[in-house]
């Protein structure tokens, strides 16, 4: 099915709840949607394909086997890793909206577990590899809508971090992978990426599995990155952008956890506040 035919079909779905009622083969249609999930048409990609898929997943339209198949498809080389490393091209839409398939699928898994431990760990490894490899951090693209890969990846990290199959070392790996996107030097985040990443970090910290020394080292990593000189080969503008992105993230994280009384949030607040004030004591 070509993009135009798919768009016309999706536009005919009930606008209230995007119900799959009456469709003979919703899974077959979902496969067509996955084929066009990276369309540069923002209406087709975002308003129709993604929201329809997320709604159907939440409505339990698909079986466990079908959800697993959609998950594997979203995370394969033609979706999550499609032309990974490119910057400024339309390939980012495929990657950014494929990673955004994780939250609704993982949400169903929390309601009725169907993913095994080894599958959750495989997802973690794929997501970390993606965070390290994604170079296109544009937010909103004129005439083509949202790319927003860092924010979408952060949403995936947040959902994955809730899995009981992830232990302390897994969460620490996710936190450091997320930090790669926090420490962006090529542009300033202006589309609330800092808040989405802060929510993901809050979920990781909220598991209360990280050791105090690991938390201290992580905050110090962010603080040190803000105080590096230009020996890293960055221009003054790149360093300024990196420093601003880190500061905005730390501020966002501080404000979302400052009223949380459970451990380790009081410690994290103290560490973040000292780092923001430029103190090492």
Automatic annotation (TrEMBL):
Pfam families: DUF2785. It comes from the Bacteria. This is Uncharacterized protein DUF2785. InterPro entries: DUF2785 (IPR021247).
């Amino acid at each position: 099915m070509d993009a135009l035919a798919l768009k016309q079909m999706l536009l005919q779905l009930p606008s209230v709840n995007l119900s799959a009622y009456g469709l003979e083969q919703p899974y077959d249609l979902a496969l067509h949607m996955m084929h066009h999930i990276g369309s540069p048409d923002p209406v087709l990609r975002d308003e129709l394909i993604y929201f329809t898929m997320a709604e159907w997943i939440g409505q339990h339209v698909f079986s466990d086997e079908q959800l697993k198949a959609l998950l594997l498809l979203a995370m394969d080389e033609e979706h999550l890793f499609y032309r990974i490393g490119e910057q400024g091209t339309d390939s980012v839409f495929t990657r950014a909206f494929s990673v955004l398939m994780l939250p609704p699928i993982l949400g169903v898994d929390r309601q009725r577990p169907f993913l095994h431990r080894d599958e959750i760990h495989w997802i973690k490894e794929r997501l970390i590899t993606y965070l390290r490899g994604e170079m296109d951090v544009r937010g909103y693209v004129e005439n083509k809508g949202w790319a927003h890969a860092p924010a979408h990846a952060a949403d995936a990290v947040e959902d994955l971090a809730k899995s009981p199959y992830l232990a302390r070392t897994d969460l620490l790996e996710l936190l450091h992978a997320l930090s790669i996107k926090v420490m962006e030097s090529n542009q300033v985040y202006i589309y609330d990426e800092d808040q989405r990443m802060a929510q993901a970090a809050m979920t990781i910290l909220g598991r209360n599995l990280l050791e105090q020394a690991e938390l201290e080292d992580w905050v110090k990593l962010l603080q040190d990155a803000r105080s590096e000189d230009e020996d890293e080969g960055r221009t003054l503008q790149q360093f300024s952008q990196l420093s601003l992105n880190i500061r905005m993230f730390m501020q966002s994280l501080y404000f979302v956890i400052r009223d949380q009384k459970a451990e380790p949030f009081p410690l994290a607040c103290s560490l973040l506040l000292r780092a923001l004030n430029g103190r090492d004591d």
